[in-house]
Design goal:
single chain; elongated; 0% strand; mainly alpha; 145 residues; 56% helix
Amino acid sequence: MTFPYDQARLQALFAEVDSRVDDLGKVATAASQVQRRSRGLSEQDLAEIERFAKSPKAPQELKDLQRRVDAGEMSWADVAAGRAIHDPGVQQALAVGVPDLQRAYQALEEGQDPEDVIASGTPAPPPPRDDDEDDGPSHFRKDAW
């Protein structure tokens, strides 16, 4: 009985699989040597978060979360590591900063210098546009239809 496949084609397929496995090994080796940019928040970072949460400028949701941290319900390390992400109080405290993050993102998209955006804490409003450049609204509300 003869083998139903072309022996040359079968050898070519084996060679291709072997080559891809070798490539995968090279990529895995290279990936294992890449260092992550961040190892997470340092103790100093966590202390700064706590300092801000205790300050008068902190939003109420963050102050409430700080009270829970002080009571021992969780730690800032738990929050930073994501272990408390399903907690509604954590979600509320983190959601307070979303508008500022959106403004910062918009400022960066518009070409503002990242250092200026960081230093200001609140990005500058976008420059006024000429009427000729106005394409209409950039977003629509449901009630506008």
